[in-house]
Amino acid sequence: MSAGCSPSYDNDKSVLAFRGIPISELKNHGILQALTTEANEWEPRVVSTEVVRAQEEWEAVDTIQPETGSQANSEQPGQLISFSEALQYFQTVDLSSFKKRIQPTIRRTGLAALRHYLFGPPKLHQGLREERDLVLTIAQCGLDSQDPVHGRVLQTIYKKLTGSKFDCALHGDHWEDLGFQGANPATDLRGAGFLALLHLLYLVMDSKTLLMAQEIFRLSRHHIQQFPFCLMSVNITHIAIQALREECLSRECNRQQKVIPVVNSFYAATFLHLAHVWRTQRKTISDSSFVLKDLEVLAKKSPRRLLKTLELYLARVSKGQASLLGAQKCCGPEAPPFKDLTFTGKSDLQPHSS
Questions:
Q1: Contact 162, 58 (CB under 8 A)
Q2: Contact criterion met (CB below 8 Å) for 130 and 137
Q3: CA atoms 70, 33, 214, 91: torsion sign
Q4: Torsion of CA 178, 182, 185, 188, to 10 degrees
């Protein structure tokens, strides 16, 4: 796809479809500014010249980095990290400084408080509030590339989405290929913090949702309907955070006596609904702001409905039936190669205040 392509217009719908415009050009047009919500470079692993056995050399291939300032995890190079392992890390590390910033619930006054008391959802059970606070605290944490666990989370997301077996630099254009705004994913986590990366990790590491993640990722690469996969995911995590704080998920959390699994499923269900609307209604990046607004209203109003849709999707996929996203028609013959894709987007969702 030529970097010099200009926007083309759909004569039937008069919808602007951005066809392969370089991300630098899109930034000049202000397309990216509303959607986005300091990492040090990694030191390359040095392979000893004394390694002479062929098997040892072969095993080292997967962790050797190109000389681009990247660094593999020196302790466990190339090893994927599960969602439970990453979560356990946050359960054991000191997050007291971040916990001070959270507002567990939305503060209501006057008529709004009375209406919420009479007609709103139930309050979260006392025994679940610590788990809720952990979720909101993780959302206050930023990405620290010096932390080996943070680095492994990024590497795992990259490998599972791209199919790569090699570690990659924590800075680089390859993150734009996944749908971040720029070369540093840390700059795009505004309003969702590290919880946005944990949600992506959950999506790609859970065997039940991996196929869904791959389907949505393919849809995001459509030659007309392309959208920034990771930035869209960050916005959906933000919706999940707001739904939790507004107690929209309290009824389901109380029913399951869990918070984190409910928030994860709500995130996945909301992302699935967005993808379904995006594909069936032929949305393009120019529609993203409106789609996200409608999605937020629906998600907060009918969380149980979205969760049921996710259950239906997963049940059909497990039986080998056609998914809710339909056949793999999203990657048409005009779809550009993976490495040549650009991702853009916009949304006026704002980060929640602490």
A1: no
A2: no
A3: positive
A4: -100
Note the pLDDT tens digit of each residue in 91-131: 999 999 999 988 888 676 677 666 666 666 789 999 999 99
pTM: 0.71
List the beta bridge partners of residue 17.
Answer: 8
Could you give the count of Cα atoms lying within 13 Å of 141 in the half-sphere of its Cβ?
A: 25
Whether the Cβ atoms of residue 38 and residue 186 lie closer than 8 Å to each other: yes
Indicate the SS3 state at residue 311.
helix
- CA 168 to centroid of chain Cα atoms: 18
- Which residues lie closer than 8 Å to 153 by C-beta, 6 or more apart? 81, 86, 197, 198, 201
Burial state string for 300-330 with b = 16 or more CB within 10 A and e = fewer than 16: beebeebbebbeebbeebeeeeebbbeeeeb
Residues 6+ apart with CB under 8 A from 237: 139, 192, 195, 196, 199, 267
Residue 15 sits at φ, ψ, to 5 deg, of -105, 130
3-state SS, residue 210: helix
The predicted-structure confidence for 31-45, as pLDDT tens digits, reads as follows 555 555 433 333 334
- Spatial CA neighbour of 218 closest among 343, 327, 330: 330
* Cα-based distances in Å from 159 to 153, 243, 332: 10, 30, 24
Task: Find out whether 22 and 2 touch, Cβ atoms under 8 Å.
Answer: no
C-alpha closest to that of 341 among 169, 185, 226: 226
- Give the up-direction half-sphere exposure of residue 180: CA atoms within 13 A in the CB hemisphere: 22
DSSP state letter for 285: G
